[in-house]
Amino acid sequence: MGRSGSVPALLFFLLLVICCAAVAASSTMDAPNEELGVNLAATKNQKHKHSGFSQAECPGACQYRCSKTAYKKPCMFFCQQCCFKCKCVPPGTYAHKEVCACYNNWKTKRGGPKCP
Fold first, then answer.
1. How many angstroms separate the CA atoms of 65 and 115, rounded?
2. Same domain? 112 vs 56
3. Of 10, 29, 45, which residue constitutes the final position of a domain?
4. Which residues pair with 88 in a beta bridge?
5. What is the pLDDT of residues 23-76, one digit of tens each?
6. pTM for this structure?
7. Residues 23 and 61 in one domain
């Protein structure tokens, strides 16, 4: 008799767990980025996070940009010069210049890239 009374309780418990899982899944599907701390509506309307630097922020951004090069002094010099003019430093230590058009398009007299 103990078994016949526990089967409906077990079925009720399983149904409750399935319903709770379905509700939790549907609420995370609506806004999967909020639990990661990302608000896509706000970031779409903002500038790229690597642009809009003030002159005080340029040395720190260029320090990271030039961190893996063997030519730190010239890299820092030109990166800061570019950052002061363009108010932008591309992400990472290499490439990704397409993020900052001014940084990407500034050329030397010989036609090579001015900014590292």
1. 11
2. yes
3. 45
4. 51
5. 555 444 444 434 333 343 333 444 446 688 889 999 999 999 999 999 999 999
6. 0.57
7. no
